[in-house]
Amino acid sequence: MSVDTVGFRELAMAALLFIITQFFIRSLLSKHYRRLPPGPRGLPVVGALPHLGSMPHAVLAKMAKKYGPVMYLKMGTCGMAVASTPDAARAFLKVLDLNFSNRPPNAGATYLAYNAQDMVFADYGPRWKLLRKLSNLHMVGGKALEDWAQVRAVELGHMLQTMHELGSRGEPVVVPEMLCYAMANMIGQVILSRRVFETKGSESNEFKDMVVELMTTAGYFNIGDFIPSIAWMDLQGIERGMKQLHKKFDILLTKMIEEHRASASERKGKPDFLDVVMSHQENSGDEKLTMTNIKALLLNLFTAGTDTSSSIIEWALAEMLKNPTILKRVHNEMDGVIGRNRRLKESDIPKLPYLQAICKETFRKHPSTPLNLPRVSTEACQVNGYYIPKDTRLSVNIWAIGRDPDVWENPLDFIPERFLSGRNAKIDPRGNDFELIPFGAGRRICAGTRMGIVLVEYILGTLVHSFDWRLPDGVELNMDEAFGLALQKAVPLSAIVTPRLPPNMYAA
Q1: pTM of the predicted model, to two decimals?
Q2: pLDDT tens digit string along 140-163?
Q3: 8 Å CB contact between 440 and 373
Q4: Phi and psi for 448 in degrees, rounded to 5?
Q5: 78 annotated among ligand-binding-site residues
């Protein structure tokens, strides 16, 4: 064997050793820089899905105490990041907002929202921007809300009259049914120039049941969303229920649109929201709306517009029934500002800081959306030093943030006073203060944020100012939650109301 051959072998071995060393160094560096956030060890195939149970927001909040503010869960074949503190939410929804501006595909978007042709589930792009722009300009934005202030006052008058009649007979008011009926008519007046339900009865109750079913089923963690290869089996029966519910809503929406077209001559020169939206079917711009887009948008507005605000008002009333001193204090505030010879006006609200504090405290403790609607990463990114892969689903636990003891003193107690002084007095629920984000934050914040705050403050304030409230004899207050896209009371609030104002204040 020649010296040259031995030297070549030594050189080759050295080169091979160098390559192997580099491989291991890069592997270690890759693992260091691509370290996933901590999280629970899931089961084979299904991952952490079975761990979430029927109250995922509460389970995830408990997990966060163990694993930290940013967690990573393997959910079937998908990865899911969960943010559970204000700083973690800010990192995802502000710093990385654009990267998390889309929704992941899911059964709710497919079978309820016309295959994501709506505003809530649509991809971030031209169609979403057009739907959002139209909604802001003509329904949920500041100027639009001012334009239909009288509609809110009239419909609230109808609700007060019905409640006054029930109270005079000693019959209880079922709060969520009453609120859903009134809000659906408010929205109907703006969208269709007419009340959706002329009288409260079986039709309006069915609509309420449909809305609750939609918000509940759309909030389920559906196995098929996380393991697409077995989605066709519909193991939980969720997709079957969604398809049946979609048919009911489609019939209702089709009827609304057909009746609206038939009455076009009555609105000459006074177009309503649906007229404006339908005019964009012939839009000469780059983006046109189909009838499917229009139906999907109406579905968003009628369901989210009625259920989320009504659940907040119901929770607020329940907390005041549980804490009578709070009800007494807000009554005293209102009597001093408004008196008892007229109804509350929206212009009174800025002069009622304790009422506003009650609303904020309810947003904190009982957010209408406990887990924000899921988002998905367009590209891989880093958060808090952790690697977040592309196509990772994001869930922000708004419920956990509102109950974080590092942010809120005595977070399980309902204390409106916390918002009257100190740093909390400046906190606003419109998405810039991440300690309180009941409507989400960033570019996919709920389009109806401004409308939701107005409805909650005005309707809750009017109900509190107009009546004394108590539970029916022998009834105990149940404060259990029922999980869904909107956080419902497990047992609907039923209460006896007694008028506080002159009889003529309850006329429609």
Answers
A1: 0.90
A2: 999 999 999 999 999 999 999 999
A3: yes
A4: -95, 25
A5: no
